[in-house]
Design goal:
The chain contains three helices and no strands. The protein has about 40 residues and is mainly α. Helix 1 packs across helix 3. The longest helix has 9 residues, at about 1-10. It is globular and about 25 Å long. The two termini are about 15 Å apart. The relative contact order is 0.25.
């Protein structure tokens, strides 16, 4: 599953990733947040 999160997050723009790890952080699985922060 972790590889799936990495794949999905790698397709997001920098702007989307910033929004995910800040504003929307509580709505995501912690592993997804970790993948977004990479």
């Amino acid at each position: 599953m972790e590889n799936e999160f990495k794949r999905v997050m790698s397709e997001r723009s920098d702007e989307e990733l910033i929004k995910i790890v800040t504003i929307e952080r509580n709505g995501y699985n912690p592993i997804a947040i970790e993948a977004a922060e990479l």
